Each structure stands twice: as C-alpha cells, then as structure tokens.
Amino acid sequence: MSPRDDDALSWAGDDDPTLVSAPAADETAVPRRAKADPSALTTTPRSAPAPSPADSEPARTSSGADADGGMSSAALVSLGVLGGIYLLYTIGWIIGGLRLNGIAGFIVAPTAFVPAVIVAVAAPAIWFGVVFLLTRERPSWQRFAWLAAGAVLLVPWPFVMLGTGL
C-alpha cells in the first residue's frame, strides 16, 4: 500500500500520548479450567445450599425492545406519530366539548356534562399512558395494537361531526 492509502486507515491524533486506551486483557482474570482428576470424582452428590428468599422470587425478564437495549428507530417514530395523534385527539375533545357546551344544556345537566367533558379530554392521555405502562414487558406489536385500538376508539366525535363552527 502506498502511504496515501494508509492515511485512510488512521485518524489524526491516534498517536497522541495523552490518548487513553483500553487496558490490555488480563489473562489471570479468567481462570483456566484445570484438567479433572478421575480419582477425585465422587459418586455422592453434594448438598445444595438452601435457597435464599431473593432466589425464590422469579426473575423479571424483559422481552421485545428492552431485551435488545431499546426500541428500534421505526418503533420510536411510530410511537411519536401515535403520541401526536393522541395529542390532536385531546385538542379535538377540548374544541368539541366547548362547541357542545351550548347544545348540551338542553339535553343533560351541566353537573353531568362538565365532568364528562373533562374525562373525555383526559382519556387520550390516560389511554396512552396506561398502554405504555402495562405493555412494558410485552412484545412491541401488542403495544402498537393497543395504541391503534385507542386511536380508533377515542376519535373526538363532536369535533368530527360538528367541526369548529368557524
């Protein structure tokens, strides 16, 4: 190789004496297995130590995204898009609830209408949080299935049917 080709394989400052490199692998850190002596083998089993209370609890294993160290980029983008949809649904429920305020007085009492609108406004955020919390240890497809179901169920119908009225 020419010196010009070697330049592509190095980085400026690689030979810096202040550069901290990883310590060399210590061969004594990993013990080597000694050859087993056949005369040392016994036929009587050793008694196992009594399990501690911490050992009796099943270990929590994570599956899906957490086992690999995080969610994929596509999953994060999809989660952001669904989060944006839920935010728009919250805004839609606010606008739709305010739009129905004059009409609802003829149908139900304000003491029933106001709490219903508050719950309707909070429902998309609650759904998103509960799904995210309850599907932590489940496969990613279940999380997205529940979020998609919420996107269908929580559509702000007053906003869709009546519009903004502008």
From TrEMBL:
Origin species: Microbacterium imperiale
Annotated stretches, region: Disordered: 1-68
UniProt name for this protein: DNA polymerase III subunit gamma/tau
Compositionally biased spans, kind Low complexity: 38-56
UniProt keyword annotations, A-Z: Membrane, Transmembrane, Transmembrane helix
Keyword Transmembrane: yes
Top-level taxonomic group: Bacteria
Membrane spanning stretches: 74-95, 107-132, 144-163
